[in-house]
Give the backbone structure.
Amino acid sequence: MSLYLWVKAFHIVFVIALMAGLLIYPRYKLHQLSSKPGDELFETMKEASNRLRKIILNPALIIVWILGITMLVMNQSLLSVGWMHTKLLLVLILSGLHGYFISIGKKIDRGDVAPTAKTMKMLNEVPFLIMIGVVILAVVKPF
């Protein structure tokens, strides 16, 4: 079995971890917004989201990028196909969304002005929609 397939397998494993984190993190913050700083729920969600960020989200994002770049180095022909360019664009957007979520989360933790609950609910759906595009591009390779 080739090293490339091992790298690809672990890339997928850490993409799943990243996506799980990106889908639950806004929910934690949404629950946190439903309470006030100092309340038990606020502090519990603050602690849970910080652990999620430190243990799953940030490490998974870093590992996904390292393994993804490793695959591109191992198979440079991928850089010559259009679907990969589009996939990389979506991955960059997803990575930026990760940073935006963390930024929002820190504002909520401080009790600063944060997005409304409605905005947070809508933002919660964005990673899933981007993931659909990434999976279709990687599997179907439409162009």
Summary: Helices lie at 3-33, 40-74, 82-110, 117-140. Residues 59 and 70 are 16 Å apart (CA to CA). The chain has one domain: 3-140.
